[in-house]
Amino acid sequence: MRDLRIGVVGVGMMGADHAERVARRISGARLVAVSDPDMDRAGALAATFGDVRAIDDPLALIGDADVDAVVIASPGFAHAEQLTACLEHAKPVLCEKPLTMDAESSLRVVEAEHKLGKQLIQVGFMRRFDPEYAALKELLDSGELGRTLLLHNVHRNRTVPATFRSEMIVRDSLVHEVDVARWLFGAEITRITVHAPRPSGLVGEGVQDPQLAVFEMANGAMADVEVFVNCQVGYEVRCEAVGEKGNATIGLGVDVLTRRAGHWGGVVPDDFRVRFGLAYDLELQRWVDAVAKGTIDGPAAWDGYAAAAVCTAGVRSLQEGRPVEVEMVPRSEVLG
Amino acid sequence: MRDLRIGVVGVGMMGADHAERVARRISGARLVAVSDPDMDRAGALAATFGDVRAIDDPLALIGDADVDAVVIASPGFAHAEQLTACLEHAKPVLCEKPLTMDAESSLRVVEAEHKLGKQLIQVGFMRRFDPEYAALKELLDSGELGRTLLLHNVHRNRTVPATFRSEMIVRDSLVHEVDVARWLFGAEITRITVHAPRPSGLVGEGVQDPQLAVFEMANGAMADVEVFVNCQVGYEVRCEAVGEKGNATIGLGVDVLTRRAGHWGGVVPDDFRVRFGLAYDLELQRWVDAVAKGTIDGPAAWDGYAAAAVCTAGVRSLQEGRPVEVEMVPRSEVLG
Amino acid sequence: MRDLRIGVVGVGMMGADHAERVARRISGARLVAVSDPDMDRAGALAATFGDVRAIDDPLALIGDADVDAVVIASPGFAHAEQLTACLEHAKPVLCEKPLTMDAESSLRVVEAEHKLGKQLIQVGFMRRFDPEYAALKELLDSGELGRTLLLHNVHRNRTVPATFRSEMIVRDSLVHEVDVARWLFGAEITRITVHAPRPSGLVGEGVQDPQLAVFEMANGAMADVEVFVNCQVGYEVRCEAVGEKGNATIGLGVDVLTRRAGHWGGVVPDDFRVRFGLAYDLELQRWVDAVAKGTIDGPAAWDGYAAAAVCTAGVRSLQEGRPVEVEMVPRSEVLG
Amino acid sequence: MRDLRIGVVGVGMMGADHAERVARRISGARLVAVSDPDMDRAGALAATFGDVRAIDDPLALIGDADVDAVVIASPGFAHAEQLTACLEHAKPVLCEKPLTMDAESSLRVVEAEHKLGKQLIQVGFMRRFDPEYAALKELLDSGELGRTLLLHNVHRNRTVPATFRSEMIVRDSLVHEVDVARWLFGAEITRITVHAPRPSGLVGEGVQDPQLAVFEMANGAMADVEVFVNCQVGYEVRCEAVGEKGNATIGLGVDVLTRRAGHWGGVVPDDFRVRFGLAYDLELQRWVDAVAKGTIDGPAAWDGYAAAAVCTAGVRSLQEGRPVEVEMVPRSEVLG
Question: Are D254 and D238 in contact (CB under 8 A)?
Fold first, then answer.
């Protein structure tokens, strides 16, 4: 199967990140083009990969015959036009949130795609792909905790630029928890209150940070969200779901922490493939990358020999019930 | 750059896992061949990928002109011959532990590779690639905790087959901590004691499980290891490193937990790329896989519209200091 | 100094608990009388202690010349009259919450005490005495986290009797967090919203459980509280305080968990008096209780001998660098 | 029942701590005398309590007719003589560890007590009274984890004085884990190895710190112990017990952490008496202490009024489904 040829529109922090992801870590895909109003930035990024074109006009990238699919990471105000172009060229597109800047223009995009009769647009609400959120969703859907009644969310950034105003905190930060609540509850939000507690003295004049939002869901359930984008600590995202029979929290750094029937805790993995699956992926990716450069990037044959020598002594210690010296040829004798 | 064409020798649990990894998750590599004494198993696995050959003879796979590099996941007793073949054909090889079955044959492999004048062999001590172990190594090497004096290790499997005898616990399980100790200390193990505490009543007659090993390192430091491969709980691997000025533990499910100067704790990530990096990788991999099938696998344009409608109401709530109803066109009106 | 002679009014669960506390665990105090409408219950409880009178009329207990101070643990509707009696007799009183059933009657109690010119009434908002809450208060007051902006509270009981109605959830449960917010912020609550999310299907018809309250403080800060008194799990009380420079959580079972400047974590105790202070208290209390009965309740001289024998062998092992057998006279030879 | 009159022998750090404990926190006991070679220190301490005598000669204190029971907190070399005196006067005694300085003298004490036909001596192995150790013991004895096979212990102090030599680390520190292993296993230690890993560079010349001890128990089980009394971090004491069906750890600051059948976790308390029992004890102790001085030390009537006012508004908010302003008389109008 031929690799999917991908073009990235907008190569600021997020877009550059996606470009590298496609180029170096995603299987079955190839980065072929990037586009940015700042052509120097686009050109410099393209050059780091080799065989990637920098294209001036994002619409040209979208229409290019050698681009199979598009990642949009441009500023939100540019999304409507670029999405429309993707639909016109029938190109699958992964669009960073927000879809567009307001509900009306978003609705027009939905309608245009619906007329095509084919889903081409995916929106970058990436929490659905985080293993912790995915496990929480699975747990809630299993019904083990009863119906979900409440969500408590925390969304904190260490700091944001002074240009990040109160409304952007809603549109660019809170929007993630809007999707989380809709997705976890499987219901729309019907009413929203965004409270304005006394703001931190460490943010710019007139910026309302933190904010405390309350969502009322179509099914009667509720969610609260603290958004605090200048919390000074670091990046903290947590979600606690409260069900009729128990509750579960993610974002504590311990996978899904559940509480039910007198116990709190988590899961011990079944086997090494769960615990070390990512380590195996990294091992192979780094080995493949190193082999492409004619080298290795990990434990060498000598390490295999040393381990064998220790295990041989270990088996003897076990059999004889005493400490055993490890016998090894000095490394310099073998490897010079 | 052309993808590295990889052949996998041995497609039991571990080998099949590696084959899928190469085929589906590793960028820059392509699975082209698998080999196994059980040709039915090899054939069935190859068929799941398409365009992958099942080759009878592992040495034929290793020598095949269309195989650039080899992953060896066959039983340990077959490694020596297969590694020798890799060296003869100058093929880079990632060999699952153990390198070979004893120190003497391992030494011969080391010497043969050394004669070639080029490192072709990497051994599958995969803990070095686990993000937690890697972070621990980095912390210890930074010197922040002073010199490392002691390691406490725990290595537990839920259960193993009854054929897994006392010596295999040393050679196949403890061997991981042998490498961990050598790697973290940067020193060889000079003496080993493997204690035999009273065995669990839940293991087969004559199997010594758990075992308690003590390593004495060339630099005078020490390590202890509990190996308990029928612990009934699940897969638990932990390592605590004790330095002159503090200590650090991994495997608790909370990344690196440190204790120093009156405090215990861990790190809050700097930004979303650290916390959600894996989520972004999964988002793109699943999007690429879905697009190849002509669909999407994630939040759709409608989800983008719904979020925009909620955020519009949220901004109004913030500005007007009151709850605001969310206005949305009913889904059925738009999408039918 | 003579022990304070205490009478307890109301010996339901809470009052019986307080009676036992005074009788057995509080130094400098003596339980002398209990009172309850159910004289059988009062009598039975008094009999378990010896030398404690059961008194029919709570006002008689309060007025009794041999009672120095009073603990009120009767139902809330009886508090106003009993508090008034305490004030009239100038008896110090510790009154379980609520002070009285409504704001108006509470205000009259405050005014009556104020007229006396002496504080005699303490209210049973016991969270202020919990070591975790006290440590949180100290941390917030230190200013290390900047000004406190938000509190997130969780207050859950496994279940409550069906007679516990929606209003009681506010008056008897939420009231604790009312005090916590006032105390931690050092400010009054000026506005309150109690939301009614969809109720759990496991509570009685018409009972609003859980509830989600939002407090707006006089200083502009805010607090939210989930109260869920039929959460099915157990008793969970948590409080997260969000400051301008960091945040701190209690109730996770790990003392105060803080997050600031890129780190999360807690405190490692300075020495054994912090870590084991409670163990020493319990050791001495149990020894005193046992000695009063002519026995001991802890490790005996034989345990001291056995430890000495092991340590003697341990010192030799350290000096000689080898395992050493422990030499002990068989227990039966010495103790028969 | 009359309070037990207690004398404390030796008022260094440990003895002074015990004296205060008896005087202020232990119910049913009264501190009547202290003794110390440094009479100034003894006198000063006695003076802080009032009505406590400072007695020059420890044997005089032990023999004093007004002393019912003795706490020995003198240096270990003085214990043998003082214990003998307690036995002669038939005084119950709680003796800090070690019982005596070596196995031989300890055995003589055991024999002397045995001849009396009555247990008068309790040894200060206080871990048995720590709620976490006690819960671990109860769990292991329940058989839920199967037979216990291994213990892993960690015992760390931040620093100790330079006079604390290698042998003292065994006799004064490791001795606690000697008792823990004997107590948890219910079996004697038959063989001990004390390993000497490379010492920390932060301890005095010639001091072996850390040490790594291995105990072999009469029942075949084993225990390892890291003792590191200059670990620089703080006071850390942990114990992990490994059973045939699961394992349990204490000392992580989260009570007993268990792992079994695919899950790790702990217990959510049944009710507030478990979670807040200590808070109630502290509330009453501080109230009693304050009342004795004619004051209160906790929330006042005003706090009860304020809470009532908020709850009244909260009930209305719940009933009317909207935010409600809290109505309170200004504090200054009532309290001036």
Answer: no
CB contact under 8 A, B242 and D226: yes
Is D233 buried (19+), middle (13-18) or exposed (0-12) by CB count in 10 A? buried
Q: What is the CA radius of gyration of chain D?
A: 26
ipTM metric: 0.89
Chains that touch C (3 or more CB pairs under 8 A): A, B, D
Chain D residue numbers with beta carbons less than 8 Å from the beta carbon of B204 are: none
CB < 8 Å to B147, chain D: 198, 200-201
In sequence order, what are the beta bridge partners of B215?
A: B192, B223
Tokens 């695919």 -> residue: D262
Name C217's bridge partners.
C189
On average, the pLDDT of chain C sits at 93
User: Positive or negative, the Cα torsion across B55, B58, B60, B64?
Assistant: positive
Instruction: Decide if C78 contacts C105 (C-beta within 8 A).
Output: no
Q: What is the pLDDT of residues A89-106, one digit of tens each?
A: 999 999 999 999 999 999
Domain ranges in chain B are 4-124, 128-265, 272-335
Pairing assessment for the beta strands A148-156 and A222-228 based on DSSP bridges: parallel
The answer to whether A9 and A62 have CB atoms below 8 angstroms apart is yes
Distance from CA of B266 to the nearest CA of C (A): 5
- Report for A299-313, D37-51, D257-271: range of highest mean pLDDT: D37-51
Question: Does CATH number 1.10.10.10 belong to domain A128-265?
Answer: no
User: What residues contact A55, with CB distance under 8 A and at least 6 apart?
Assistant: A7, A33, A34, A35, A42, A61, A64
Mean pLDDT computed over B225-237: 95
Our CA angle for C84, C174, D333, nearest 5°, is: 45
Q: What are the tokens at A149?
A: 């009644």
pLDDT over 90 percentage in chain C: 77
From chain C, pick out residues whose CB is under 8 angstroms from the CB of A235: none
Q: Could you say which of 2.40.320.10, 3.40.190.10, 3.40.50.720, 3.40.50.150 is the CATH number of the domain covering B4-124?
A: 3.40.50.720
Evaluate if residue A274 carries a pLDDT over 90. no
3-state secondary structure B260-297: ECCEEEEECCCCHHHHHHHHHHHHHHHHHHHHHCCCCC
Is the pTM higher than 0.90? The answer reads yes
